[in-house]
Amino acid sequence: MSFNNIIGNDNVKNILKKSLNNNTILHSYMFVGETGIGKKMIAEQFAKMILCEDFNDNECNNCKSCIEFNGGNNPDYIYIEPEGKIIKIEQIRQMQTTVIEKPINSSKKVYIIDDADLMTREAQNCLLKTLEEPPEYIVIILIVSNENKVLTTIKSRCMKLYFEKISDNDIKKFLQENCNIENINNNILRMCDGSIGKCLSIKDKLEDYNEIEKIFSNFNKNIIKVLNSSEILYKNKDNINEYLDYINVILYEYANKNLANNIKYINSIKIVEKTKQHLLNNSNYDMCIDYLLFNIWEEFNEKNSRG
Prior knowledge:
A five-stranded parallel β-sheet has the order 2-3-4-1-5, sandwiched between helices. Helices cover 54% and strands 8% of the residues. The chain is of the alpha/beta class. The protein starts with 9 loop residues before the first helix and ends with a helix.
């Protein structure tokens, strides 16, 4: 793999590649952007290129470092991720015990700290010591979704690179080339929200999303028909928040197409949000779905419901 095989964020890739070609690699980077837009993939590829013993515009894939990297056992590459929901100070202390050890295969050692914004304050203060006086052979890459959770003192010692959402056209191309999926509708693209990660989680549920679309084709019919077509919601408790988000995407689309008469769609979106809150409060699941469907049906059938 090379940067060319990673979709999107060409500006970031060009900056990193230039630093490799000019031998101006810095000690610390911070990759900032939403989840699922390629930060980790680019970080890992950058690490592999840094460690390559015969780098020439792209990694060689033949040197000892590349072979071991591909096999997941390169001693000069260390990956750190949260244990549970946080990165603990003990993890950073363990990292610091290896920082003083010189690289084995390459001239550098690369540390990637994934979800670095989940470091505890103590862990961040501990890491700061290494960032202030890093050995010349160390490169540290922090992958961050919410930079507001990162100490200013850490941010000031890193080169920050901001990642953008993947374009709809690139997501379509990805699905066509990697998943053999054609003709993705705009609602699905909005659910992907520029994230390949979300795209991959959604692609296996396309039939479910089609079922949800069908529910709304029945909302001008008898409420019994609506309930009978809504089994997908009653039977998928684990995915319900994702499906509720998709319902909102559908409603936003309808609202934008009916600007002169969009109040029922706006009210329906409020009903979806209230349903989310009911579920968060551990209300009876089936009753929450009943509430959702009956109330949206009433918005679509105001005269009938009041009659």
